Write a sequence for this structure.
């Protein structure tokens, strides 16, 4: 089963958190550093995705690890 992580804006910065998790796995001041650390965690899982949100909460992009587990790989 795939683990889904979300990178979202908080009142104090950004957080990377496992979906339905109680606490953030990663916290930081910049979106870039939190995305990088959350991706490192996801890559250590058998199957995981990282959903990166904009400041307004909308999903900006989703990255799946490993790539071969992506259910919707792009054509070409």
């Amino acid at each position: 089963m795939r683990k889904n992580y979300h990178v979202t804006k908080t009142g104090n910065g950004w957080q990377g958190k496992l979906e339905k998790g109680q606490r953030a796995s990663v916290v930081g001041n910049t979106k870039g550093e939190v995305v990088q650390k959350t991706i490192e965690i996801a890559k250590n899982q058998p199957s995981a995705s990282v959903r990166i949100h904009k400041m307004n909460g909308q999903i900006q992009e989703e990255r799946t690890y490993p790539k071969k587990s992506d259910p919707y790989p792009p054509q070409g």
